[in-house]
Amino acid sequence: MGLYDYGIYQVIKRNALVLSERNALISGDIRITHRQFLENVDRLSNGLINLGLKRGDRIGVLALNSLEYMYLYGATAKIGAIMLPINWRLNPQEVEYVIFDGTPKVIFVGTEFQPMISPLIAKFSFVANYFAMGRAEGDFAAFGELIEDQRISQELDACADDAYVIIHTAAISGKPRGATLSQRGFIINGLRFMYYWRLTEQDCHLCMLPLFHFGALGTSLSVMQAGGSNIILPKFDVDLALKHIQEDRGSLFGEFPPMLASLLDKAQKEHYDISSLRIVVGLDQPETIKRFEEITKGTFWAFYGQTETTGLVTLAPYFEKPGSSGIPGSMAEVEIVDDYGNILETGNTGEIVVRGPMVFKGYWNLEHDNKHTFRDGWHHTGDMGNFDSNGYLWYTGRKAEKDLIKPGGENVYPAEVEKAILEHPLIEEVSVIGVPDTQWGEAIKAICVMEKGKTISESELIEFVAARIARFKKPKHVVFVSNLPKTNDGLIDKEKVKAHYGNA
Description:
The protein contains 14 helices and 24 strands. By secondary structure, the protein is α/β, with parallel strands linked by helices. It folds into 3 domains: about 5-185, ANL, N-terminal domain (Rossmann fold); about 300-400, Luciferase, Domain 3 (Luciferase, domain 3, Roll); about 405-500, ANL, C-terminal domain (GMP Synthetase, Chain A, domain 3, 2-Layer Sandwich). A hairpin with a 4-residue loop joins strand 14 (about 300-305) and strand 15 (about 310-315). The chain starts with 7 loop residues before the first helix and ends with a helix.
């Protein structure tokens, strides 16, 4: 192993040596020290090797957050395999696509999702083993079987620049794309967070976002790198979160609306001590951010980033320049370009492009998409923005080719929702847009042209869509109109649709 192969497993080893008895992971009443974390990772690594896993093999996970999930991230880093965390909000057909795309050799499945996976097992000839994350029965062996061997496997020839995680992003052309991230990207990301947020072994992160999300994974690994502890919540639970903040002195977390508002409301109502919170990063309403900072004296950080950038590209305290996405962080080179790739002067709006060691390695098995994304030596984000004279990035929207809606932090492409709506025999045309939403930040709105003389209710159409794609992608609002505005070439004029119907 060379100097530049310092990866996640080396972080775990270092913590076990110098912070041996401090807590690394907290889950309910269970406390796992850094020494115990290393031991479990080593034993799990040995179990995976005994299954025949080797460098580059994929490990699928469909489960809520858990200690075992974190052990898998550690063991995968050690043996040079690739994690394939699956979004559990997807429907069975979407989950099936992700598994076929990633072709994992082994799949770990949470108790809640085993009824979804069991009927699909016969389709996956490439999967050799299935394990339960939780209660083991039927088709799923016990997770504990993999960590029974007390021996410590030798370190394999894992490379920190190899693929480490494949996270499938929203379906830009009808199918999700697997963004491939490296250990090195996460290490660089962690160093940046340690610098900007002054992370130390005293910090305690509440991992409430799902571990299939780059925000949860990136922040967890960054706090681990600083020697701190991670509180692993299965998913967001306001009562459990407040209990841990008060008892374990939780100091930071990432969020999307309405998580922070829910925490503040209950904390004030039931007099929880949340004064230990010093950092929250995410997207939220100015009034909620102001409440948080007044109550805790902490700082809310605004940002711009993507799965493809292994986290945050720009960041700054929200009230440093309200409404902006912050300034480029260290090791991130960010520019604004026109449609021809020319870098634009300050103040001009164009596409945001990024390069640096945290940028992803490309989309899994999509050579054509990668050539397009990395043209001219930059990662083209598909997002639009401009820089002001002080270097703050102002996000202004998405390019038409990457029109995207983010309800509660999830990525939804309008084209995917439109396709599902048009499967209804009574809908002739549709345009799906994002509209402001006080609860979720952004909501999905469908403007539909119905077949003349026919009727369907808003709720019926919403449920029709929910039966075909993940429920978080269904419209929250449906409007029926006699016609949609068109461009000169007869296509639906999305900009006029947004102008006419862009309010909730």
